[in-house]
Amino acid sequence: MATFLYRLGRGSFxxxxxxxxxxxxxxxxxxxxxxxxxxxxxxxxxLPGTESQEAFDxxxxxxxxxxxxxxxxxxxxxxxxxxxLTEGEAAATIEQTVAEMENxxxxxxxxxxxxxxxxxxxxxxxxxxxxxIAVLQVTYTESSIELDDATxxxxxxxxxxxxxxxxxxxxGGDVLQEIPIGGITELIGIGVALLVLIVTFGALLxxxxxxxxxxxxxxxxxxxxLAATSFMDVSEDTGTLATMIGLAVGIDYALxxxxxxxxxxxxxxxxxxxxxxxEAMGRAVGTAGSAVFFAGLTVIVALMGxxxxxxxxxxxxxxxxxxxxxxxxxxxxTLLPALAGFAGKRVFTRRQRARIAEGRHDEKPxxxxxxxxxxxxxxxxxxxxxxxGLGTVAIPAADLELGMPxxxxxxxxxxxxxxxxxxxxxxGAGFNGQLYIVGDLDEGADPMAAAQNVTEDLNAVDGIAVVxxxxxNEAGDTVLVTVIPETAPAEEATNELVHEIRDVLADSGDxxxxxxxxxxxxxxxxxxxxxALVPYMLVVVGLATLILLLVFRSIMVPITATLGFVLSVxxxxxxxxxxxxxxxxxxxFGVEQPGPIMSMMPIIMIGLVFGLAMDYQIxxxxxxxxxxxxxxxxxxxxxxGYAHSTxxxxxxxLIMISxxxxxxxxxxxxxxxxxxxxxxxxxxxxxVVRMAIIPALMSILGRAGWWIPKWLDRILPNVDVEGxxxxxxxxxxxxxxxxxxxxxxx
Length: 746
Known about the structure:
By secondary structure, this protein is an alpha+beta fold. The chain has 4 domains: 1-41 and 185-363, Up-down Bundle (Multidrug efflux transporter AcrB transmembrane fold); 67-173, Alpha-Beta Plaits (2-Layer Sandwich), CATH 3.30.70; 371-404 and 529-707, Multidrug efflux transporter AcrB transmembrane domain (Multidrug efflux transporter AcrB transmembrane fold, Up-down Bundle), CATH 1.20.1640; 434-516, RRM (RNA recognition motif) domain (Alpha-Beta Plaits, 2-Layer Sandwich), CATH 3.30.70. The protein is built from 24 helices and 12 strands. The strands form 3 sheets. Strands 1, 2, 3, 4 and 5 form a 5-stranded antiparallel sheet that branches. Strands 7, 8, 9, 10 and 11 form a 5-stranded antiparallel sheet that branches. The longest helix is centred in the last third of the chain and has 35 residues, at 518-552. Residues 738-742 have low confidence and may be disordered.
């Protein structure tokens, strides 16, 4: 592996114009495809194979007039002085809005707050107490991502006309759901990363190279995602997650290789020599590039392991992020050497080049050596403080509550959130999460009898605020009834209610009943994620442990690395619960409405944190193992390895933390929580686990930490991550060349 990467890095450096041309063609081609094929991303989550999704599909098939997949809008009216909306100018304004919406483009149905059934019974939504809140319900013929701009503009104009009369008017539903637009958060992360790189390298040009390669990698992945929207539904969060991961690992991977290149070149002392620069790049890619390859492989394994969850949108997000990581690796070992070739000697400042020429340049930091020495002298103390500290931070994780976000967790600046609050105030929180009970009747069953039976069964269930009128479809083979819970969609009581309804209806003999609706679908997604958590961890941890075993040829290194990862995950989940669920320091992190943690958060965090944690394990301990296999005792190997790696790993961690933390202020709850959780996890793992706990444990274990059974050592392929075989080969070639020169001189 190291020899192949050595040749690849040196070749890319020498053939830089060809490498650059290839990458320009690739990026240009994918960009052109994105421009030609781009469609809207999807805000909807689907879960094939679940009861709620199957019932939703049945509802769409048997009740086509309901437009089950059409966009919805709840136009909520409220009088500012508390006066009734059923009379006077307020009533006239609502009626005028109803008339306007009936003429809207792409409209399917409009239900006035004052609507009644043929028998004169009210079916519209007017607040029973005070009648000061009313809801105009609108359904469109197309989903929210397929609505024309003219349709949403028409809605917004109608709402503004109603507001001009003095009423408070807000719009709920998914019709105005905004697709998050990135830009500012990425720029913040890139800006901080650039500052860290400038401090690390002391040279502006060298600092800019990792930024350029990472941004190009993210651009390529983003263009690919946009092109993919033409032939598949792509979640709106897919691009954000890929950008978040791509920037972080792209900068880090380039940082590790470029740092090793500068070290090799400085040690050689021939910065002005083009051949020496090419050789130094080959050595850098052959050694640090090997670590980058296996680090990237570990992240990819962790991400693709999410496919075992069998949730399409989650698999899609993971696949996009995995492709981003793969592109970051390929760019780091090909395009980065080419760009470094163009930079030439300017990867160092003039002052740095002068110091190298005088033999006074030494980029190996003393701080890492001193820290490694402190840890190896006091391993028990350092280990205990690290473990107890993270254990304390992890305590809130015991109170972790999972759920799916709804409009109630949005910012109060959002009209959907204000509509949610008004509906809760006027009708009860459950009206924001209606459930649909769909019955596929047995052959020959009486639809009216089935409707009466299901209504009686539902009226006996506690926790239901309203059971709507059950009615069959035109074919008489399906029955539909709407149920309003007493509690909000994200509350645990609503979760329990859905399961209780399913248990009650399971014994019905006249139909195959199922519960659907957005709330039920979210509950099924949460259940699926919870059920898949343990199998996922077993798959990912097992595969990644094998990779670490292959890289380090040790039993204890993979075990300690994995245990450290578990500690990091629980600590980050504890911090996430404290801030986003309990609301501690919520103002500092922009948490306006504390609530349950999104159900997919733990499993995504486990995958990403495991991959990123193993990155630092590989980057730090490849240098430690390199020292150990060259004869250093275990403690001396830790001091030597950390002397070489600490500064660059600290820089890499700070960069990754800054990239993730920038997303905390994205304005979207899921993305903000993901950014916070990943930033906390990287901080805990890099600075506490990898810098303190792991070296402390390895110091205590001594040579036992590097033990591997001889039979296992024999059957494992030698991937030569440290480049030992490469170094031997290059040394032999150098010796042969010197002998030939001596012979020629004689």
